Structures are given as C-alpha cells and as structure tokens.
Amino acid sequence: MRKWKNWIVIASVFTVFTAGCAPSTGGNANTGEKTNKQGKAETKSITVMARAGIYYNALSAIAPDFQKETGIKVNVQEVGRDGYLQKVSTQLLGQDKGMDVVLMLNNYMGQFGAGGQLEPLDKYIEQSGSDMNRFLPASAESVKYQDKSFALPFDVSTMFLIYRKDLIPKPPTTWEEYNKLAAQFTKSKNPDSPTEFGIAFQGKHGETQPKDFYQYFWSMGGQFFDANMNPTLSSKEGVQALSFLVDAYRKDKVMPADASTYEFPEVLSAFQNEKAAMIINWNAAYPQLADKEKSPKV
Hints:
Number of helices: 10
Structural class: alpha/beta
Number of domains: 2
CATH class of the largest domain: Alpha Beta
Order of helices and strands: EEEEEEHEHEHHHEEEEHHHHEH
Strand order of the largest sheet: 7-6-8-1-2-11
CATH superfamily of the largest domain: Periplasmic binding protein-like II
Largest sheet: 6 strands, mixed
CATH topology of the largest domain: D-Maltodextrin-Binding Protein, domain 2
Oligomer: single chain
Strand content: 15-25%
Low-confidence stretches: 1-12, 18-31
Shape: globular
Number of strands: 13
CATH architecture of the largest domain: 3-Layer(aba) Sandwich
Distance between the termini: 51 Å
Helix content: 25-40%
Mean pLDDT: 85
C-alpha cells in the first residue's frame, strides 16, 4: 500500500521528488512484481506527474527503459503549464495517494519539506550506493532543507539572450545597448524595422515572471537580503531594475502590449514568428529554434 509521505520530487533547478520505489513486503525487487491476496504476481507501477512540453516528452521517452531495467511500469501524467504548480501543491497538501513522483521547482523544498509532505531521500540515496556528489554542487544544495535532501536535481535551467544575427551582428553588452536596440527594432519607434517589437518578456503572473526579473535585478547589483537577512527588493537596485522593465513595457512600448500574458511558449513564439528581434528565454528554447520545421523563419 502506498504511503502518502513517500515522495520523490524531481528540481530550475527543476527537481524530482520521488517515492514509492522501494520494494514493499511481498514484492520482488528484481522483477518489479508484487503478489496480491491470491498469491498472483502483479506488475508494480508508479505515477509520475510532469508538466506538459519538454519535461513530459523526456520522461515519457525514458519510461520504457526504466521499466525494462526495474520491472516497474511508469505512468507519466501530463499536466498543462497553467496552474501546474497550484495543482501539484494542492495534491501534496491534500496527501493525494495517486502521485508517486512529481516535478517541482527547487524553491518549494523548504515549504513542503517543513510541512512533512515530502520524505527526506538521504537514506534511499545511501542504500542505492550513490550520493549527491554526482550533481553540480549548487543544484545538490538547492534541494536541501535543514541539511536533508528532499529531491533529486533533474534539470538546471538558465536564461540566454537570443537575437537575430541578420539584424544584430553585435549583441548588446549593457542594458543601455539592449534598450537602444529594442527601440531600433520596434515599428512604433522605427517604421523601417523588420520586426514589430525589439524584445519580449515573460510577464504572466506565476513562477517564471520573477525569474525573468531576477536577471535585471542581479545584474544591476541587487541582492535579496542584506548581511542581517533583511529583504532588499526595495533597494535602489531593485527600484532601478523594476523601473527599467516597466518603462520598456508602458512608456517605451518596445515589447508586445500583451506581454503580461507571456510565458516561455509565448516569448519563444514571438521570436520564431519574427515579432521580436531579440528575446531572453530559457535554454530549453534552443532545440526548437534549431529545428527548421518548428522554426522555419529562424
């Protein structure tokens, strides 16, 4: 019988919380089988919740190999981007028994680790003969809460400046240059611009909006806390970063008017369809931009 606290979470880091993989009483660890009340062998299975898109596709692709190696069938459940974290959070808080493995951002480790929704994985990692040294130090540290590992790093995402080389032979190296190019390739500023807008932004309320903001905030000298752990988002650097974005959106209008509804897919689409001359987006965009069928105009 599944125990609701036995989770593995996968981690933007994205992490994997996992659980229920240890063989239960009456099971066969080599074949992934367990016996029912009639003594007949049944194939064990686990349910994995993954966000639609590259994560779902990747896990679905490797699920057959996992079953072949362990005998455990993997049911990958696809959940849309909108409301994904809310749905996962609801199921964790509700102690849902239908979820064994779930992908979640590493910044939720403390919340669910402290709340008891996740079980520390340290003993399972030790039993497997492995350790967290196999991961990048920063990613391994990001899934810890009170020195306990509550997840396994799954994907380390970062953002890149992606630009049209035919339009921008030399990419900007400062925010001033970035802003100037954004205006140059915005039709309302320059009627001869081949693109409607210079840039785009992941402005939709949710998990990615603050991450897009952080790069402006950090690069302008901002930090989340001071030496005494007082929050410093309202520092001069924080105000400068936010003002830069707000001005680009409201005053200069160098990004689409509906950027407040944009996430990863919309920003990617704006670049693919020549709506924006340059974008800042996750590294996951590269395979799609390199695919001539998916991005014929790039």
